[in-house]
Amino acid sequence: MGGTSPKVKLQQKDFISWFEIPAINFQQSVNFYNQIFGIDMETNIDDNYAMAFFPVSNGIGGSIVAGPGSTPGDSGPLIYLNAGNDLNLVLRNVENAGGRIVMPKTLISEESGYFAIFIDSEGNKLALYSSQ
What we know:
The strands form two sheets. A four-stranded mixed beta sheet has the order 1-4-3-2. It has a single domain (18-130), classed as 2,3-Dihydroxybiphenyl 1,2-Dioxygenase, domain 1, CATH 3.10.180.10. It starts with 17 loop residues before the first strand and ends with a strand. Strand 7 and strand 8 (125-130) form a beta hairpin. It has 132 residues and is mainly beta. The protein has two helices and eight strands; from the N terminus they run E-H-E-E-E-E-H-E-E-E. It has helices at residues 26-37, 88-91, and strands spanning 18-22, 42-45, 50-53, 61-66, 80-82, 100-109, 113-119, 125-130. The mean pLDDT is 92. It comes from Psychroflexus aurantiacus. InterPro entries: Anthracycline_SecMetBiosynth (IPR052164), Glyas_Bleomycin-R_OHBP_Dase (IPR029068), Glyas_Fos-R_dOase_dom (IPR004360), VOC_core (IPR037523). This is VOC family protein. Residues 15-131 form the VOC domain.
């Protein structure tokens, strides 16, 4: 029968629908993100997994997750977290919360905005994004 499948062309607004940041020390990770963003994450803990949810009113959400298969790392895909209008407001909290700044606020272009890269309290490499 062979043959080729027809090519699918996705027209998506966003190509990320959800993200999970792995943690070993769950509470330390929750505290880290609560501190750098000034938020209070809702948690859900059962016998196998612990999850803490980033508060969103609309758009893409995500969580911190601890449990089987949730291994922090500094390689692999890089997630860019929205840091509002000026990522320095979040970035300045990273080191006090137990993280490390790898790349300071850097201009992508005037049209595209700025980014910075950090290592969180669990050893995950992530980025921040802002338009200004």
